[in-house]
Structure prediction request, 118 residues.
Amino acid sequence: MNDTLKQEAKNWLADVPDAYVFWCSDGRTVRNMKDLAEALSTMTDEIFTYHANAQKNDFSTWVRDIIRDEKLAGDLMQTSNRIQAANMVAERTASLIESLTPSRKPSQTRPSRSKSRR
Prediction:
C-alpha cells in the first residue's frame, strides 16, 4: 500500500475532533469507525431507524462528510438493516487495520552452529 493510501486509512480510523462526533438519539457519542461498529451492533432497531430511514441516513452522511470514507458511506446508504450496517463498518475497519499492518515475511531459518569439541 502506498503512503497516501496508508495515510487515508489512518485518517479514516482516527478519532474525529470533538466538534464532529456523531450523537445518537439515545445520547451515546461515536468518535471513530470502531465506535460506530460497536454502536450499530448494540443500539436498538428503533434508534437505528431514527437515524437511517427512507428520508435520511445519518450514518452514511457522517461517514461521508466527517470520516470521508466514500466507499463505506456508499455501502451504508444501501442498507436499511442495523446488523448489516454494523457488519459493513466492522469489516471495513478490519480491512483498513489489516492494510496498515506490515506484512510479515516467513522467517528464514539459519543453520545451527554445532559446537565442536576440541
Residues 3-100 form one domain. The chain has one domain: 3-100. The mean pLDDT is 87. The chain is about 55% helix and 5% strand.
